[in-house]
Design brief:
The protein is mainly β and about 350 residues long. The chain has a single domain, classed as YVTN repeat-like/Quinoprotein amine dehydrogenase (Methylamine Dehydrogenase, Chain H). The protein is built from no helices and 28 strands. The strands form seven sheets. A four-stranded antiparallel beta sheet has the order 3-2-1-28, with no helix packed on it. Strands 4-5-6-7 form a four-stranded antiparallel beta sheet, with no helix packed on it. A four-stranded antiparallel beta sheet has the order 8-9-10-11, with no helix packed on it. A hairpin with a 4-residue loop joins β13 and β14. This is Beta-propeller fold lactonase family protein. Belongs to the cycloisomerase 2 family. InterPro entries: Cycloisomerase_2 (IPR050282), Lactonase_7-beta_prop (IPR019405), N2O_reductase_N (IPR011045), WD40/YVTN_repeat-like_dom_sf (IPR015943).
Amino acid sequence: MSRTFVYVACASGGTVDVLALDPETGALEAGSRTGGLDHVSSLALDPAGTLYAACNVDRPFPDVPPRVVALSLAQRTGAASAGPSRELPVTTCYVSLSPDGRALFGASYHEGRLIRFPAPGVAGTVATFDSGANTHCAVVSPDGAFVYTASLGDDRVSWFRIDASGLAPARAAGADDDGAVAPSGHVATASGSGPRHLRFDASGERAYVLHELSGDVAVYERDTATGRLALLQRASAIEGLELAPGPVRSPTSADPGLGVVWCSDLRITPDGRYLVAAERSTSTLATFAIRDGGLLEFLRRTPTEAQPRGMAIDPSGKYLLACGERSDHITAYRIGADGSLAAASRAATAGGPLWIECWATA
């Protein structure tokens, strides 16, 4: 009997919560909870049965350095057991797995770095690379050839070629004489737009970038040989919401309130037909149809959990899950044939849910 387990990183709770998702009804059932994960912010799933949790992104505990913890997943119950961990030299708000599963890439928002490090328990060195102010994601392309970063503070998206070992971005032409690795290339986004998260279509020929501060979703054509991105379209996820442009945020900046754009996550359905983007100030989800050529057509807006920070789509493509930073809940939505989102179930989580991953077992 196949099972689908949902893992939620809860920052203020310091836990990864485990829930079971019924593939027929969309019902969420609370399961186990793994604690001791200080300010866990993001997750990366190895479908073979390991979940990597990035902890202490904002360093609220000065005696506990940033780290990534490997969680072993139980196939029958989904329970996550903490295993080896690796300390990191910089905070990491986003983690993704390398093509061979032996290393991870991370984005350091506060230090403006791309970080490459061996998975906990794997031998190797840790290295960081300049990727621009307020780097918010590090996403490996579907072909495993490049890792892409979005610099929210510098308004640019960069790409680094991954070398033959699969463990490090290769030295690019024009790299500094001291051996520092430069991006293979980058594209500038609109000033003040704040590119935050990036997703690829299944082919890797289209990249979609959500901008935290402007609410735009940019569609890029990707050259799979060079990694280069060429802008095809900018679509608005916040049109009609009457929000002012958002500011770059930091732990020391003043809260601008809920009258500004504050987008968070975007997801693409496995069949490539729909894209969903989350906006935190209005606690809404914007759904787009993906038309011929990968271009977007806005369809509708759906109210969701308070301050939605993370989303996921289950492997079957039937359900979208969204968690609310301020609601401490997660909702499962059934995805209709027309892309509509209908709430199927809701469950409580520990405090400050930020990130969701789904694991399907046989």
